[in-house]
Design goal:
Layout lengths: L4 H8 L1 H19 L2 H6 L2 H5 L4 H6 L8 H7 L1 H28 L1 H6 L5 H30 L10 H29 L2 H21 L13 H6 L3 H4 L3 H24 L5
């Protein structure tokens, strides 16, 4: 009998998922631990000498507070780029990788629909994004007291990590939707990475260039624009990321069901 696609995919990718989770959490922990040196070493004052446009783009206007520091470096730059990379690479491989290797034909020869196959692959991606965010959350709690991050509540850390998981899911949904629609991993990677770069720039530079409306086209704005580290869960922003994920997946899978896989 055909093994459960979800379980089989997690088992086949367990090393990669573990590496992404541990690696991302370690990066977050290391940079979060630098906060006392930044706060006491005068870096916050030095940053104030940077051009205002640069400070605004990199969210560096408040490097002296724990939320400002983490919102600029750890959760504003490093971790979102890492989870975006995870979502794009995992999603691109989800359908297109199997199609290019010929494994997809073997799977679909069993009594499993294309939609069920694609949905279970997407569920694995969501599980991976959630696992990464969960380990990041535990890493932040582990270093919270020793790194003087107590001004950020546990609920706020949890909210930011939920937003992190949703960001990875959104770009993963984009990639797996393209993967299902196009069937060419190189094309999917190129398009998804291009969209990721453009939306990151739009989310961070929209105000600088006087086009504030551009940030509303960027998943990164809904990920961190409401500052979950200060204000907790931003339910409207989270709902928009979730809705975008559903739309990307639905559009891609609709095309997947109609596409001739032999061409």
């Amino acid at each position: 009998m055909l093994p459960d696609v979800y379980t089989r995919t997690l088992a086949d990718n367990r090393r990669g998922l573990l590496a992404w989770s541990i690696g991302t959490a370690t990066v977050g922990l290391m940079y979060a631990a630098f906060y006392p040196q930044v706060a006491e070493g005068g870096m916050a004052d030095t940053v104030q000498n940077y051009p205002e446009a640069m400070r605004e783009a990199l969210r560096m206007n408040d490097m002296s507070s724990a939320a400002g520091y983490l919102g600029s470096t750890v959760f504003g730059l490093l971790l979102p780029l890492l989870v975006t990379a995870f979502g794009v690479t995992f999603g691109a491989r989800g359908i297109a990788g199997d199609e290019e290797s010929g494994y997809l034909d073997l799977l679909l020869a069993h009594p499993v629909s294309r939609t069920r196959l694609a949905l279970q692959r997407f569920a694995c991606l969501v599980t991976g994004a959630a696992a990464i965010a969960a380990l990041v959350f535990l890493a932040m709690l582990a270093v919270r007291s020793t790194a003087d991050l107590d001004s950020i509540g546990i609920a706020e850390f949890a909210a930011q990590c939920v937003h992190l998981a949703l960001l990875g899911t959104t770009f993963g949904a984009l990639a797996i939707g393209l993967s299902a629609a196009l069937g060419k991993r190189a094309q999917v990677l190129g398009i998804a990475v291009g969209i990721g770069v453009l939306t990151y720039i739009a989310g961070n530079l929209a105000g600088v260039i006087g086009a504030d409306w551009l940030k509303y086209l960027s998943p990164f704005h809904y990920y961190i624009g409401g500052e979950p580290l200060r204000h907790g869960m931003q339910w409207a922003d989270a709902a928009i990321l979730l809705a975008a994920s559903v739309a990307f997946v639905a559009a891609g899978f609709l095309r997947f069901n109609r596409r001739d896989l032999r061409s």
